TrEMBL record:
Gene Ontology CC annotation, any one: membrane
Superkingdom of the organism of origin: Eukaryota
Protein's name in the database: Sugar phosphate transporter domain-containing protein
Residue intervals passing through the bilayer: 38-62, 74-93, 130-149, 155-173, 216-238, 277-296
Keyword terms, alphabetized: Membrane, Transmembrane, Transmembrane helix
UniProt key word RNA-binding: no
Domain Sugar phosphate transporter: 21-294
InterPro entries assigned to the protein according to its UniProt record, in alphabetical order: EmrE-like, Sugar_P_trans_dom, TPT_transporter
Subcellular location as annotated: Membrane
Pfam family, one: TPT
Primary location recorded for the protein, binned into one broad class: membrane
The organism of origin for this protein: Linum trigynum
Lipid bilayer topology: Multi-pass membrane protein
Length: 341
């Protein structure tokens, strides 16, 4: 696979697809919910997953990828955790202020670092931690406004953080340990994620909006935007699994905050949303953190590759040295024996 600046082109493609599709679906869903009055976010997500599974099923029938069976218990657990995390995130948004919800999303990175350090023995250098801190401060300055706390909202936010972190770590771990591709894992797990949200979505949405998704008066424009949202969601779900499989949960969260900054910038420039110096400073600080994170990750990756190459050379040389020494010892013993004779 080709590389650009030490980063494989496959990773660059996955990152680009993730950013482009995520920003597109945010714009589409904002128009659907804010302008057209369709507030059923959880139910819409279940439709996204149904369309994603149907698309992958058609691709599989045309032999565009090979299906690989995964342990059913693992797939069911994985699908349930990811489906539940989406429900908790939506409930967190419903029971908390926008500012506290943004803080919930920011907390996912340090929680992920903590979980990977404790349970997967992963090491994060001080440089990486500093870059992540700078990123979180910048996004916080740019996006967090009001901070209103309540007991139920706080509990839901903690559950959302926990399930989201575990789901994203599982996405990365399952692909690497079971040697399955992002497409294969998404194909296996999408039905279970969709089932969780298909059942709970209408109930969650009715609880949050006091409206029934089945009683909503659909019109051609709303249906068109729903279909467009579902099509874009296929790319979002596919790229999400690719990024988590090819990089790490922390990198995926960093990418998510890049999307947040891009959405804010598009809102300021295209939609004429109100902004202040604070928003601009926050975005610049966040971008600086992202650049540093990318730079430090690339440097550490190069160092690891260099160390692995040196180790491989040493492993190759060791048997040769041992063989030469054994040969010399054998010849020495033979000469000694001849001299005695």
């Amino acid at each position: 696979m080709g590389e650009m600046g030490g980063i494989p082109l496959g990773v660059i493609g996955a990152l680009f697809l993730s950013v482009a599709s995520s920003v597109s679906i945010v714009i589409c869903n904002k128009a659907l919910m804010s302008n057209l009055g369709f507030p059923f976010a959880t139910t819409l997500t279940s439709w996204h997953l149904v369309v994603t599974f149907c698309t992958l099923h058609v691709a599989h029938r045309f032999n565009l990828f090979e299906s690989k069976s995964v342990d059913m218990k693992t797939v069911i657990l994985f699908g349930l955790v990811n489906g539940i995390s989406i429900g908790f995130l939506n409930l967190s948004l419903g029971f908390n202020s926008i500012g506290f919800y943004q803080m919930t999303k920011l907390a996912i990175i340090p929680f992920t670092v903590l979980l990977e350090t404790l349970f997967l023995n992963k090491h994060f250098s001080q440089k990486i931690k500093f870059a992540l801190f700078l990123l979180l401060v910048g996004v916080g300055i740019a996006s967090v406004t009001d901070m209103q706390l309540n007991c139920l909202g706080t509990i839901l936010s903690l559950l959302a953080i926990l399930t989201t972190c575990v789901g994203q770590i599982l996405t990365n771990t399952i692909q690497k340990r079971l040697n399955v591709s992002s497409t294969q894992l998404l194909y296996q797990s999408a039905p279970f994620q969709a089932a969780v949200l298909f059942i709970s979505g209408p109930l969650v949405d009715q609880f949050l909006t006091k409206k029934n998704v089945f009683a909503y008066k659909y019109n051609p424009l709303v249906v068109t935007f729903i279909m467009l949202s579902c099509v874009i969601a296929v790319a979002v779900n596919f790229s999400t699994f690719m990024v988590l499989g090819k990089t790490s949960p922390v990198t995926y969260q960093v990418l998510g905050h890049l999307k947040t900054c891009l959405v804010l910038l598009l809102g300021y420039t295209l939609l004429r949303d109100p902004f202040s110096i604070r928003n601009v400073v926050g975005i610049l600080v966040a971008m600086g953190g992202m650049v540093l994170y990318s730079y430090f990750c690339t440097q550490e990756s190069k160092k690891k590759q260099s160390d692995d190459l040196v180790k491989e050379k040493e492993d190759v040389r060791t048997p040769l040295i041992v063989g030469v020494q054994e040969k010399e010892n054998g010849e020495g013993k033979k000469l000694a024996k001849d001299s005695v004779v």
